[in-house]
């Protein structure tokens, strides 16, 4: 079973990396580029076969290690 | 119009960051954690309103700046 996790900065939290990308795209001649937000994406293979249990485990992983919940949101998708 | 981009390492490319996460999860007592792959996720606001044109533009952005196409794959979703 595979878990797909998106970790993104909360609204209102400054995103200097996204800002740098936005400026770089402008310098390269791309017009009409607005806000850029950069986040993380993770795929985790789990031996757990019950989707509900897997989701709870991954939620714990996010809270304990993967995300900084003060400034970041996370979303979890469980699948194959 | 918003573009959502996933940038992941190609199969066979070593992922030390993912490995570190895998080991850290093991140290924290999470069992049954297999392969962990870490990638990037980006949301880009575009003033372009034509989805086809937007996708082509973002594809160019990926090739020129956002992804290292030697070792990384990217997928693009255009939406609101």
What does this structure look like?
- 2 copies of one chain form a homodimer.
- Chain A has 2 helices and 3 strands; from the N terminus they run E-H-E-H-E.
- With 80 residues, chain A is an alpha+beta fold.
- Chain A has a 3-stranded antiparallel sheet.
- Chain A starts with a strand and ends with a strand.
- The model of chain A has no long low-confidence stretch (mean pLDDT 96).
- Chains A and B meet through strand 1, helix 1, strand 2 and helix 2 of A and strand 1, helix 1, strand 2 and helix 2 of B.
Concise summary:
2 copies of one chain form a homodimer. Chain A is built from 2 helices and 3 strands. Chain A has 80 residues and is an alpha+beta fold.
User: Class of chain A in CATH?
Assistant: Alpha Beta
Major interchain interface with per-chain residue totals = A-B, 33 and 33 residues
Give the oligomeric state of the chains in this entry, treating copies of one chain as homo and distinct chains as hetero.
homodimer
CATH architecture descriptor text of chain A: 2-Layer Sandwich
- Global morphology of chain A: elongated
Instruction: Sketch the topology of chain A as an H/E string, one letter per element.
Output: EHEHE
Report the CATH topology name of chain A.
Answer: Mth169, Chain: A
The overall pLDDT average of chain A reads: 96
Radius of gyration of chain A: 16 Å
Structural category of chain A: alpha+beta
Strand order of the largest sheet of chain A: 2-1-3
The fraction of residues in strands of chain A falls at: 35-45%
Number of helices of chain A: 2
State the end-to-end distance of chain A: 5 Å
Helix coverage percent of residues of chain A? 25-40%
Give me the CATH superfamily of chain A.
Phosphoribosylformylglycinamidine synthase subunit PurS
Number of strands of chain A: 3
Low-confidence stretches of chain A: none
Count of spatially separate domains of chain A: 1
Summarize the biggest pleated sheet of chain A: 3 strands, antiparallel
């Amino acid at each position: 079973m595979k878990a797909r996790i998106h970790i993104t900065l909360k609204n209102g939290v400054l995103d200097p990396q996204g800002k740098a990308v936005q400026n770089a795209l402008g310098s390269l001649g791309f017009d009409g580029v607005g806000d850029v937000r950069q986040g993380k994406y993770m795929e985790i293979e789990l031996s757990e076969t019950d989707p509900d249990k897997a989701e709870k485990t991954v939620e714990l992983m996010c809270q304990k290690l993967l995300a900084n919940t003060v400034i970041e949101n996370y979303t979890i998708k469980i699948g194959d």
